[in-house]
What we know:
This protein is an alpha+beta fold. Helix content is 53%, strand content 18%.
Amino acid sequence: MKEKAGQLSLLKKSGYSDKAIDYFTNKVNVGQIDNPDACVAYTGPCGDTMEIQLRINSGQITEAKFQAIGCAGAYSSGSALMEMIRGKTLEQAEKISEDEIINHLGGIPLPKIHCVCLAKKTLEQTIEQYMKAKSKG
């Protein structure tokens, strides 16, 4: 219990918002989708890796989960983006900006902005792969 309180305090002092901390500590939207319609893993320049899995029905994202090998920034960014894209069309999801993700989180430490970029880039790659596979059909 004391260890968790220390971790939460450290995250807060580092500049994570309460919402970002909640996403990280509760692993919101982390997991797997059985037989996803789209699934791509992407490794960013920092070495963190994220995998996004989507269930898509009539061009709309009905389920979104991710897994990551990374820090609190990667987990909070992935969690936020999965929340934001659920219920959106692929086109709407692709248009979500890094700034919108940061705003949804209520802030993230400046050195962790690359984690937001990792989540966004992984989503772009996932949608691109889905569209290529769909066009081959």
